[in-house]
């Protein structure tokens, strides 16, 4: 039984490796998806900035065209001042000139603001592209690594399963059956643990003196009174 219990500890380590590989079949694709999503989001922000810059450019050109029309209209109104015959007509024309002057000022202010905003976005876009370039290289490298590891998972699982099968032959059937049954029941699949400082290595509860005395003999399967895991006396393990 001693060899069976020691072999179960080895078997547990193998199963931990297999479990980690099986989890990676889900975790790696999920991580790849998250990284690709991060890149898409970053690209989207750059695209949005470029679109905003294009809209600012179009808006500025439109305002510049309108400003040219306002200036031309303003000149016509100013030229007409010398042609009016009455004070009433003069006052009406002057009011139109003032309104055109206000529109001209608004457009000039808007054009200047558009130029400043465009310059700010140009600076931001340059910085964002530099950051994105570095991050893109990092993410693509990580994705390549994850895909490579994912491609090798099945082969690694097969390797560990062959090793597991060879080790199973060293474990007595009752102990192996108990181990496999408990693995399906307990959290994390940890079915056998070492006794550490008089406590269960799984739930860390102190074991009863009677159980510890029997565990030292390493001649039968012992289970933790609290969590039900198989327990093996650590100090007796061979070097």
Task: Kindly describe this structure.
The protein has four helices and four strands. About 10% of the residues are buried. A hairpin with a 6-residue loop joins strand 3 and strand 4 (about 230-235). It is rod-shaped, with a radius of gyration of 39 Å. The chain has a four-stranded mixed β-sheet. The protein is mainly alpha-helical and about 240 residues long. It has helices at about 1-80, 85-170, 175-185, 210-215, and strands at about 190-195, 200, 220-225, 230-235.
Summarize, please.
This protein has 239 residues and is mostly helical. The chain has 4 helices and 4 strands, in the order αααββαββ.
Short key terms for the protein model shown above:
239 residues; mainly alpha; four-stranded mixed beta sheet; rod-shaped
Q: State the major sheet.
A: 4 strands, mixed
* β-strand amount: 5-15%
Listing every helix as H and every strand as E from the N terminus to the C terminus, the arrangement reads: HHHEEHEE
**Helix count from the secondary structure assignment:** 4
Distance between the termini: 18 Å
Mass-distribution shape: rod-shaped
- Alpha-beta content class: mainly alpha
Helix content bin:
over 70%
* Spatial ordering of strands, largest sheet: 2-1-4-3
User: Count of DSSP E strands?
Assistant: 4
Instruction: Calculate Rg over CA atoms.
Output: 39 Å
Uncertain runs: none
> pLDDT average, as an integer?
92
């Amino acid at each position: 039984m001693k060899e069976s219990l020691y072999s179960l500890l080895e078997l547990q380590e193998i199963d931990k490796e297999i479990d980690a590989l099986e989890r990676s079949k889900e975790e790696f694709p999920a991580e790849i998806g998250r990284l690709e999503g991060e890149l898409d989001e970053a690209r989207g922000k750059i695209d949005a900035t470029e679109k905003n810059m294009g809209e600012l450019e179009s808006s500025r050109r439109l305002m510049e065209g309108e400003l040219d029309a306002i200036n031309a209209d303003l000149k016509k109104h100013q030229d007409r001042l010398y042609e009016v015959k009455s004070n009433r007509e003069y006052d009406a024309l002057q009011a139109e000139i003032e309104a055109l002057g206000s529109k001209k000022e608004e457009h000039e202010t808007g054009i200047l603001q558009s130029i400043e905003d465009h310059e700010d976005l140009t600076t931001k876009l340059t910085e964002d592209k530099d950051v994105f370039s570095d991050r893109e290289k990092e993410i693509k490298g990580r994705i390549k690594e994850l895909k490579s590891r994912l491609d090798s998972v099945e082969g690694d699982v097969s390797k560990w399963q062959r090793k597991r099968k060879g080790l199973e032959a060293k474990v007595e059937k009752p102990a192996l059956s108990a181990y496999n049954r408990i693995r399906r029941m307990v959290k994390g699949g940890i079915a056998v643990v070492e006794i550490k400082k008089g406590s269960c290595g799984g739930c860390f509860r102190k074991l009863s003196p009677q159980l510890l005395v029997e565990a030292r003999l390493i001649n039968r399967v012992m289970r933790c009174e609290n969590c039900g895991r198989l327990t093996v006396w650590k100090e007796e393990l061979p070097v």
